[in-house]
């Protein structure tokens, strides 16, 4: 048993990884091309962050939180900022692809590294599927707007059509008229009715989602230079449109719409946490480019911080513009930017926004499709996945097989299934990665030897011994002031947990666990003088995880258990660290 535990926490040496790093255009053991500069990395960050958040999810978040949702963007950015600083330190000291997977391997050991790597694969895959489906919806709407309609059964996944058809039939049987039903139900009904049948199966598939995934996968496959140029162009177009939206929208803002600022209180603002955080998950994708950067130790930290700051400013301004142009309760729509300009009779701007959404979604898909194969590749190089995943194309110098697999993992589900009910797994997976990266910095500072360099970025050390307890007390005071003693008791959800049965109590488990972690981290920070920034990063991201509900936690744990089965079936025995150690022992 002791040997098993020792193997599960075997670590990759950060010093050895840094030794492998070379600045002559390659990394030892790879053949990737170093071509990305600071501006390219910032563009990648903006491409990943500004997408579905601005053109879709910001609407529902604003409808729940009112103008106060702008504060949620700031809070989420601060939580991401703590994480970004920790990512920056790892990226600077260990400039190797793999993102949080590699960082966990050097700090927590192999088992935790596998867990976070498996988690990242889920996060990127589900996120990409959601983006591909959303892109298809916008693309289809634009084509319909210019009179180039595509049959419904070619623009909708089979699952949505089947469910929508059944629901529409139920409503029609109750006396409702088809033309009066919501647009999505009308489309599903028509798609099911018109779809051709083969062997008793309706031929329904989301062809635009397949098309964009194939196109983006091809770009990522043929090389980093092509991906870089495409990302830079898409980001430029996207920023131009956003500045047009802000400039024109400012003239239609009515300050009266900002009152009340938080109509549903703190709980209303926090309802949008999943949607808002989904907008920020892209900045960690920058760290997957480490082996293709000209100067990763200098440029990766800067790119993460610059992209995060710029995108936060744009999100806050846009949230205020949207809630100022129309009453917040009108924004629960899938295309809020298009809606607000149609509402003020600016149809030309609304049309431009609709077209630009296609560009925005494509850029997000590009960055995510670029990042995921690099994680497959890194895990394969460590022996935790078959060697074919780390195969580098001799001409394009990209992880060719991993890129093709990534394309299939996204394209096939997007073609036939709608995974909207599990898209929150993307947020919970990203938050979990952030928690471990912040924790990894604490572990390294306390126990491990970290390679140092004049070039390396380091998280500023602030002793949290007294500051953290004061911040927690201040938070409790604010909760009491804004929610009262009854509200705070309800916030912590402990007082009536056992009285309402397991079905209610189970939803309180994540928050109760978070309270326990706060107590433990406060004690550790006080006794061991822990650095404040990574501690705050760990706690804020863990709190955001509690907001995602027990259902998402259950699905997340099921995915991790599946990953553990694969690890013990293959990765544990084939790990390069294990085989190297055995070879060393046999050599003796």
Automatic annotation (TrEMBL):
Annotated Cationic amino acid transporter C-terminal domain residues: 532-575
Pfam family, one: AA_permease_C
Keywords: Membrane, Transmembrane, Transmembrane helix, Transport
Protein's UniProt keywords contain Transmembrane: yes
Location in or out of the cell: Membrane
Main location: membrane
Transmembrane domains' residue ranges: 41-63, 69-88, 203-221, 233-253, 265-283, 304-328, 348-371, 401-419, 425-445, 466-489, 509-526, 533-550, 556-572
Membrane topology per record: Multi-pass membrane protein
PANTHER family reported in the protein's UniProt record: CATIONIC AMINO ACID TRANSPORTER 4, INNER MEMBRANE TRANSPORTER YGJI-RELATED
Protein name, UniProt field: Amino acid permease
Species, as recorded: Pontibacter silvestris
């Amino acid at each position: 048993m002791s040997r098993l535990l020792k193997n599960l926490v075997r670590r990759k040496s950060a010093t050895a990884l840094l030794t492998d790093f070379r600045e002559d255009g390659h990394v030892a053991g790879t053949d990737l091309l170093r071509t990305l500069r600071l501006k390219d990395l910032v563009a990648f960050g903006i491409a990943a962050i500004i997408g579905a958040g601005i053109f879709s999810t910001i609407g529902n978040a604003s409808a729940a939180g009112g103008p106060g949702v702008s504060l949620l963007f700031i809070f989420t950015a601060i939580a991401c900022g703590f994480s970004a600083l920790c990512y920056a330190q790892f990226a600077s000291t260990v400039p190797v692809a793999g993102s949080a997977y590699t960082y966990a391997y050097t700090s927590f050991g192999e088992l935790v590294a596998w867990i976070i790597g498996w988690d990242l694969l889920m996060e990127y895959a589900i996120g990409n599927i959601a983006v591909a489906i959303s892109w298809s919806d916008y693309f289809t709407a634009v084509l319909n707007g210019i009179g180039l309609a595509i049959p419904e059964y070619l623009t909708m996944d089979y699952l949505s059509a089947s469910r929508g058809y059944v629901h529409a039939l139920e409503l029609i049987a109750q006396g409702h008229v088809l033309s009066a039903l919501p647009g999505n139900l009308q489309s599903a009904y028509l798609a099911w009715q018109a779809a051709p049948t083969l062997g008793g199966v309706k031929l329904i598939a989301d062809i635009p989602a397949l098309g964009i995934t194939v196109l983006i996968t091809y770009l990522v496959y043929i090389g980093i230079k092509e991906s870089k140029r495409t990302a830079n162009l898409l980001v430029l177009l996207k920023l131009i449109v956003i500045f047009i939206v802000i400039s024109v929208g400012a003239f239609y803002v009515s300050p009266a719409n900002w009152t009340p600022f938080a109509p549903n209180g703190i709980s209303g603002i926090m309802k949008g946490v999943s949607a808002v955080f989904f907008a920020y998950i892209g900045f960690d994708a920058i760290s997957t480019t480490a082996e293709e950067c000209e100067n990763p130790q200098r440029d990766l930290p800067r790119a993460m911080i610059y992209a995060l700051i710029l995108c936060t400013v744009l999100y806050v301004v846009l949230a205020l513009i949207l809630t100022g142009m129309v009453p917040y309760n009108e924004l629960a729509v899938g295309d809020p930017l298009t809606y607000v300009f149609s509402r003020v009779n600016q149809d030309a701007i609304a049309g431009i926004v609709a077209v630009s959404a296609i560009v925005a979604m494509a850029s997000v898909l590009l960055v995510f499709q670029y990042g995921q194969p690099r994680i497959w590749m890194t895990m394969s190089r460590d022996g935790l996945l078959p060697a074919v995943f780390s195969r580098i194309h001799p001409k394009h110098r990209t992880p060719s097989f991993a890129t093709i697999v990534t394309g299939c993992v996204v394209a096939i589900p997007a073609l036939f299934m709608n995974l909207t009910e599990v898209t929150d797994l993307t947020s919970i997976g990203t938050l979990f990665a952030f928690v471990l990266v912040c924790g990894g910095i604490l572990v390294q500072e306390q126990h491990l030897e970290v390679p140092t360099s004049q070039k390396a970025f380091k998280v500023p050390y602030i002793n949290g011994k007294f500051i953290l307890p004061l911040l927690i007390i201040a938070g409790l005071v604010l909760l009491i002031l804004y929610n009262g003693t009854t509200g705070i008791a309800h916030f912590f959800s402990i007082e009536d947990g056992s009285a309402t049965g397991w079905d209610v109590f189970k939803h309180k488990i994540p928050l109760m666990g978070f309270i326990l972690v706060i107590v433990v981290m406060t004690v550790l920070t006080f006794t061991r003088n822990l650095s404040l920034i990574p501690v705050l990063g760990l706690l804020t991201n863990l709190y955001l995880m509690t907001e995602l509900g027990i259902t998402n936690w259950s699905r997340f744990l099921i995915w991790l258990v599946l990953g553990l089965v694969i690890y013990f079936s293959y990765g544990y025995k084939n790990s390069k660290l294990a085989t190297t150690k055995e070879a060393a022992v046999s050599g003796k």
